[in-house]
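dude i think i finally got it to work??
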Amino acid sequence: MEDKAAQKIILSGIKPTGQLTIGNLIGAMNNFVKLQHDYDTLYMVADLHALTVPQEPKELRHKTLSIIAQYIAVGLDPEKNDLFIQSHVTGHTELSWILGCLTGLGDLSRMTQFKDKSSKPGANINAGLFTYPVLMASDILLYNADYVPVGEDQKQHVELTRDIAMKFNFRYSDTFTIPEPIIPKTGARIMDLQNPLSKMGKSDSGESGRIALIDDPVMVSKRIRSAVTDSGSEIIYSDSDEKAGIRNLLTIYTNLTDKSVPEIEKMYEGRGYGDFKKDLADIVVEKLRPIKEKHDELMNNKDYLESVLKNGASNAQKKAWKVLSKVYRKVGLVQTGR
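look at this
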């Protein structure tokens, strides 16, 4: 294994809103587990980003700790990864101010996520929602991350981060690594079980449309069995919108087993959706069972979680200060040491 100092850096963050779903597991977290052996990896809970919408403080604190527990439960080793909470590291908001002074209003107004969220009825349109991509750029550049695992919906924000980094480097000399997005080729988009033309979201999907990693097994089985399919009965993968439901279930099946889609289609040739859903429900329940059990165990051991967070934040802070002090010096700010 390479020395950490020589490894490429990966950073990813998850907001503590809603519930982590099987879509997060398949599209990102399973890949995180593989990456931890070959990269210098930092995985944070982006609690500051969560504040762009009103939060109930007690629930926010609980969900923040729960995500750390779920990180560990899916297989992220605290000895191999820096697991930390965004607000525990000085520098995210400090660097965000400096980068914000380099970012044009036009660039921010073109961000698709802002336009989508601000157009919803009753949307809480605030400055934080508008400048969200600058804080995300700060998250990434504060550690000079080489790679950022993101979904398609966040790719535009990474592109803006690259633009900001290049602008800073041009004005003040080379300082930031230009990050590259990592977007999984398969299984990246698990769709809502009740609306298979929409992505399964932590917050956006209704309860019956998503499967949370820590859902009760009985509920998991019920939601798979009641997933929307179509009026047909053939277990076949098709790009047709009419087959979006069964396509989504096949995507879940192939990503949670070692079977390819053609193998699964052959297994269920001449059988109906009922048999298929029953088997898939069993597969999903057994996949999530150890994750839920480990999560619940960790949530009852707050001392251990706090030790993980303290160590993760300490490691991340050292990396952050190294970059931030360089930035301060280059832009002309007087420093007296920390």
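The beta strands are 9-14, 40-45, 81-85, 147-149, 180-182.
im so relieved honestly
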